[in-house]
Every structure is written in C-alpha cells, then in structure tokens.
Amino acid sequence: MAILEILEFPDPRLRTKAKPIVEITPAIQALAADMLETMYAAPGVGLAATQVNVHKRLLVLDISDDKNQPMVFINPEITAIEGEQSYEEGCLSVPGFQESIKRLDRIRVNALNLEGTAFEIECDGLLSVCIQHEVDHLNGKLFVDYLSSLKRQLISKKLKKQQRTASAKIL
Ligand code: NI
C-alpha cells in the first residue's frame, strides 16, 4: 500500500471527467487500497480517484467514527429521490476551506463493489452528501463550483499562494 499525492485546487487535472471502469483488475483493487490509506492518513472521509490523478470512476469513503467501515464505489450512478439539505463541506483538494453547500438529501446509488458485484443503497444525511461530493469529483466538479465566482477566485488565490510557499520550503 502507498500514500498517494492529492491534487489541490486550482490544479486543472481536477477538471478531468473520469472514465468508467470496464474491468476490475488487481491494479484497480490496489488503487482502491491505496486510496483508502491516503484518505485515512489525510485524514478525510472520502476520496475520488480524480483527486489522486487517476481518471477512472472509483471512489472510497468511510464516515464511521471509528474509521473501520470502508466503502468502495465503482462506476457509481446517483438517482435523486427527494429533499434538499445544506451541509458544511470541506475537501482534501481544497485544504483549509469549508462552506455550506446545498445538495439533494435522499439519494439512491447504484455501483459495483471491488468483486464486481452490483449493489444499490439508499441514503440521506452525511453519507448522501459524501457520495454526491465524490461523484462530482469524478465529473471534474469541486464544491467551490457551488460558490460565487468571487469567493472561488479568492480561495484559488489563497491556495496558490500556500502552494508556492509550501514548494519553496522544500528547496
Ligand atoms: Ni473533495
């Protein structure tokens, strides 16, 4: 297993639309394991393959308090059921920023697990928010896209500055 590098906004690679996974190979299984390790180490509750610069439709998450209920979704498809909710969201690719984002509440998700078996879940609350946030990543979308362009530019500017400072320290 390995900790993978997480791309940070405004890196243009985060805008790539991920492609469906046609075969669940050992490489895909290893990627899922590495993504879980990276997510736990960060620490975060969800991670999409896009964020580690792999443009395939795979996401991992674990919203449990004890961090012992990893979930893997391959080729996830969301169907809205009902309702709206607002949640204070952050993102490993937008470190240090949290904003309240309005999303669907109750959703149905169809996906494959790591064995290639199709499954369906219905959820609301935090799990629903996480899945919507991560599926957005697979479509090249970030939570900052729901904010005003002024706010998004401000966050972009601050992060670029931080990234410059961080790389300067490595020299
Ligand atoms: Ni995110």
What's the short story on this structure?
The protein is of the alpha+beta class. The protein contains three helices and five strands, in the order αβββββαα. Helices cover 30% and strands 27% of the residues.
Task: Give a description of the structure.
By secondary structure, this protein is of the alpha+beta class. The protein has helices at 26-41, 125-138, 149-170; strands at residues 46-48, 58-61, 71-89, 99-112, 118-123. Strands 1-2-3-4-5 form a 5-stranded antiparallel β-sheet. The longest helix has 22 residues, at 149-170. The chain has 3 helices and 5 strands, in the order H-E-E-E-E-E-H-H. Bound molecules: nickel (II) ion (NI). Nickel (II) ion (NI) is lined by residues 91-93, 133, 137. Nickel (II) ion binds next to helix 2.
List keywords for this structure.
27% strand, 171 residues, alpha+beta, five-stranded antiparallel β-sheet, 5 strands, binds nickel (II) ion, single chain
